[in-house]
Design brief:
With 243 residues, the chain is an all-alpha fold. The protein has one domain. Helix content is 79%, strand content 0%. It is built from ten helices and no strands. The radius of gyration is 18 Å and the shape is globular.
């Protein structure tokens, strides 16, 4: 893997995304609108909003970044850009890490925007340090970008990327402990929940934001999320070669 090639690919992605107003609107405006609707719905129930805020941040970081990355990476494939890169001396990992870095920049900015909006505009009460919350969300964002790249290799158009959303996100939303603690689920559902990245993100954010824990207390969750990101990126490398 060549750092110069990787950075060149990331720079091209960044320049291309800056010109793509539709994708930027999806990435920045959509989560703010949805978060605002949810937040203002609970205006008279502040304690409920404070309790669900960690889960909402995790879901939005995973969902909107996944859609943005999946659609953008698919567009690279459909336009033949990825195929042309694969015929050059550039390695698969140069391509994947370059795309990851490019998409990750915008996803990180989205995380900052949504987090600041949630804390200031919705005025949620939280424990822990804001920078630790940001770091945890950034790790989840890496997972989401890797997931978006991986899933998009199985789609032939943008509509098919959207079709993956129920299959990818419905189990995570319902089994990650947002609505019911994992410990209270039937054994087989609890086992499934332990294979979902959102489960660990929600648990870690709840520990920090609701119970005032630090990153040192959620190292297990951080390690598992990092493992998910590495595994998904490796699978993406395999499937990109296949496509």
């Amino acid at each position: 893997m060549s750092p110069d090639r990787t950075i060149a690919i990331a720079n091209r992605i960044i320049q291309q995304m800056v010109r793509d107003r539709r994708s930027l609107a999806l990435l920045f405006i959509a989560p703010l609108v949805v978060m605002a609707l949810v937040g203002f719905t609970f205006t008279d129930k502040r304690e409920v909003l404070d309790r669900v805020a960690p889960a909402l941040l995790a879901v939005f970081a995973l969902f909107f970044t996944f859609v943005f990355t999946g659609v953008s990476f698919l567009r690279e494939r459909s336009q033949g850009t990825l195929e042309r890169l694969m015929t050059t001396p550039v390695g698969r990992w140069d391509i994947l890490i370059g795309y990851l870095m490019g998409f990750l920049l915008f996803a990180t900015i989205q995380t900052v925007v949504v987090l600041i909006f949630t804390v200031t505009a919705l005025q949620i009460n939280y424990q822990g340090d804001l920078w630790q919350i940001f770091i945890l969300l950034s790790i989840l964002t890496i997972v989401s970008v890797s997931l978006g790249i991986f899933i998009s290799t199985f789609a032939n158009n943008e509509f098919q990327v959207v079709q993956f959303i129920p299959m990818v996100f419905a189990p995570q939303v319902f089994l990650s402990g947002i609505f019911l603690p994992i410990e209270e689920m039937p054994g087989y559902l609890e086992a499934i929940a332990r294979f979902l990245p959102l489960t660990y993100a929600v648990e870690a954010l709840q520990d920090i934001m609701l119970r005032g824990e630090s990153l040192g207390s959620v190292t297990t969750e951080i390690g598992i999320l990092t493992g998910f990101a590495a595994a998904l990126l490796t699978l993406a490398a395999i499937t990109v070669r296949r496509t």
